[in-house]
Amino acid sequence: MSETITQTKARKGRRREILFAALTLAASILFGLFVIPGGVVTPASVKHLPLSPAFLPYLLTAAIGIFALIHLLEAIFAPHIPAEEEAGALDAHPKWKSRVLMLVALLLVYLLLPDQLGMLVTSMVVTIALLAMGGERRPVILIGVGISVPLLVYLFFTQVAQVPMPLGFFEDWM
Asked: CB of 26 within 8 A of CB of 69?
């Protein structure tokens, strides 16, 4: 009896994966065909796509579409999940409510504090908190990834893409 229940749960989980991947792929296609061309203004003087303001949105949309396609194919054609993993894989985490609340709080921090702390410092704090929420406990990884990834993203946007970012309390120093 329990075997049929776990098989039913696994089938529901697989259907959810297929639906999620198909909707993500559809959203990616819609963004590429309608949202980006309609929402991103490209000056007529820009002849090459990599120099266009639409390049990064198209690149990210294409990457999401490729990952969604891979996820869809894997959900359809991957071998069935072994019975031992089925039962635990589809259950909700026991602390999911508190984690959702912490995530909302971090998103509020990310929304409200860049003007005071600066985008770089806020991103570092939020990244370290997200890593800790995800279970990382090694200080070297927490600090290393928490500083290097936001710094690299910040440098890309400010130096390469020429997007101004809030400096917060560093504004007077620069």
From this structure: no
Burial of residue 57 (CB within 10 Å: 0-12, 13-18, 19+) is middle
Instruction: Using only the alpha carbons of the chain, give its radius of gyration.
Output: 21
pTM for the structure as a whole? 0.58
- Paired tokens of 72: 């869809």
Cβ proximity of 174 and 167 under 8 Å: yes
Chain centroid to CA 38: 23
What separation in angstroms does the CA of 91 have from each of 95, 96, 131?
12, 11, 22
Q: Give the relative orientation of helices 139-155 and 119-133 as an angle to the nearest 10 degrees.
A: 140
User: In tens digits, what is the pLDDT along the chain, a chain of 174 residues?
Assistant: 455 655 555 566 688 889 999 999 999 999 999 999 998 888 888 888 777 888 889 999 999 999 999 999 998 888 765 554 555 555 777 888 888 999 999 999 989 999 999 999 999 999 999 999 988 999 999 999 999 999 999 998 888 878 888 888 777 665
CB atoms under 10 Å from CB of 99, counted, come to: 13
